[in-house]
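Aim 2 progress update. The chain analyzed this quarter is reproduced below.
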Amino acid sequence: MPLMMKAVVKTRAGPGFELCEAPIPQIGPKDILLRTRATSICGTDIHIYNWDTWAANRIKPPVIIGHEFCGDVVEIGGLVTEVKVGDFVSAESHIVDHTCDLCRTGMAHICRNTQIIGIDRDGSFAEYVAIPADNAWHNPPNMPPEIAALEENFGNAVHTALETPVVARKVLVTGCGPVGVMTIAVTRAAGARSIYASDVSDYRLNLAKKMGADLVVNPARENLTDLVLEATGGEGVDVLLEMSGAPSAIRDGLKLLKSGGHAVLLGLPSKPFEFDLANLVIMKGITLHGIAGRKLWETWYEIRGLLRSGAVNLEPVITHRFKLEEFQQAFETMISGNSGKVVLFP
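Predicted structure tokens:
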């Protein structure tokens, strides 16, 4: 095995990344080392690439970016028994302590001491990545690597769509990036009555229709509120699944949500913003759910069930593939809005 590897690194505060030579990670007794097969770009990576307010307050360069990935196990620590060399695995990106009050009460996905791969420690935009063996998820040997790399992000969609009942309900999905369109697919599989979707990218709205949306709206040129109220007979929607983090989408979504409805929010705003809490939330008696990652490991078993049963097909979501060295073009493609999921191959 070589001593050095190629990696995409956030080398300093400010926009952009750099392709660097980095040492292959050393592993501890409870860790495993993966040879990365595929790794995909997440919306969080875009925040880091752009160096917005959230990223500037969270990321401490230098760090290798990337947290959605799969790979082959090439080395295991001395205390590892549940994973062996040669296994094909994906990874849960949230590394938890297993001992805090949240971990011990079934809420490990919001562990007080969470470290996130590719954010708080070196990640997967590299030829090799080290993770705790506890974070490995075994895949069938014949699973396409781009699908296996997508499981972590798909888990966000599954967690969001299934956090509140959607069966026979009218659902609005604001934000049709890759995780948004995957959320549409899960919501359709879960039996929603109707699904309305919004985004400022026509490319992504077309993808949303392909994945199961009944009505798509581009708020850059259409009135989302008017069109959804018309489609729902003036009632609005029962469930809001907010995937964009855009202040306008959050405000419009809450406005369209029925009194007593449920709003499930995954999208990260790039900076704090104001909205009418009294009239959009409190006086409407709505329930807000914040989504952080995936339930450990409940969501992962739901992922397995949805994929292996054929209830959800992720192939249409993956629209672009690049070599790791082409990361700049890959990020430009993702940022353009004219893409679904973008996957890198080290």
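The radius of gyration is 20 Å. Residues 145-161 form the longest helix (17 residues). These observations will guide the mutagenesis experiments scheduled for the next reporting period.
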